[in-house]
Design brief:
- The chain is about 25% helix and about 25% strand.
- It starts with 11 loop residues before the first helix and ends with a helix.
């Protein structure tokens, strides 16, 4: 079902170790195995993950754009994205997939997958007080119990409807 956008590099294990060390988070084994097999996967919104009870802004599925891996394109590289978002997404999660064109699926330290919506969970400047931010909403909606469960739930967009 998935096709690699880039070749998996020979030193993927070292890149995984460096990522885990630098961010202080351990990647779930199923995600590590995915990185070793596919690296970056571009889905072009052809794939989706159905969600229950209109959990996300009235939508019944999450369109998947890119599953992050290791590459030179900073918008698709797990290291670069998480470095850029380290003060914008909660500490206990890391972005692993770009979804709905501007949001992230995030892997929590507990191994579960959550949804980070840029309109709800991002940091916003407090217009009433210069150089301060509004309180951040860190209550991310739950999506799946594991990366493996997420993968098993992904369907081709035509089958969602």
């Amino acid at each position: 079902m998935f096709q690699s956008k880039y070749k998996v590099c020979r030193i993927v294990d070292k890149k995984i170790q460096k990522f885990e060390k630098d961010f202080g988070m351990f990647l779930e084994n199923s995600y590590k195995n995915f990185l070793k097999k596919y690296n970056v996967v571009e889905c072009n919104q052809e794939f989706a993950f159905p969600v229950k009870e209109n959990l996300i802004a009235g939508e019944d599925d999450i369109s998947i754009d890119i599953i992050l891996g290791f590459c030179k394109d900073e918008q698709e590289d797990i290291y670069s994205v998480n470095y850029d978002y380290q003060d914008r997404i909660p500490e206990d999660v890391m972005a692993i997939a770009l979804v709905n064109e501007s949001d992230w699926l995030c892997l929590h330290t507990n191994g579960k997958i959550y949804y980070w919506d840029h309109e709800v969970h991002d940091l916003y400047l407090d217009m009433k007080q210069p150089n301060t931010y509004l309180s951040q909403n860190v209550d991310l909606p739950f999506i799946a119990n594991s990366f493996q469960e997420l993968l098993e739930g992904i369907v081709h967009k035509e089958r969602v409807k």
